[in-house]
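Our preliminary data section would be incomplete without showing what the modeling component actually yields. Below, a chain of 175 amino acids is followed by its predicted structure, encoded as tokens that our downstream tools consume directly.
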Amino acid sequence: MKIIIALGNPGQQYANTRHNAGFIIADELQKSLGFSDFEKNSKFDALVCEKNLGGEKILLAKPQSFMNNSGQVVKKMLDFFKIPKENLMVLHDDLDIELGAFKISTDSSAAGHNGVQSIIDNLGSQQFKRIRIGIEGSEKKKDRIIPGDVFVLQDFSKEELELIKKLAKKIVGEL
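Predicted structure:
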């Protein structure tokens, strides 16, 4: 069994923000791969759906705690299902990666991402796979005049949102 955790903030006011790139990708994966519908699981404080892919059960979850508390949800799920950290994949936004691109990393620091840091703190390890979704890129970042913590809470433009949604098709191969 594997668990894919998408990071974001709950609530309609955050639905299309840059910080919710993980949730946006999760919604696209759920639709395109035919996962069950997301259902609220109060035991984990997450929306959860599932699918068997290649003979393996995959849980896809969107924590309903706020981003900075995502680690509590992840820890509860891994403990309950007795899943090793190596079977965890986290989808999250990354300011240092070009919009419309993604990178995969394992055993790397949170690099200032509070949601990822929460997971590392709660698991006591950074030994899990991350799919880092580009929301800006370092070239544009140096020209930005607003702080990153404000920038990530801004909505994607319609064109930017389409770029993010298209990434789901590329990410499928990494599951």
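The longest strand covers residues 88-98. The longest helix spans residues 158-171. Preliminary results of this kind motivate Aim 1 of the renewal.
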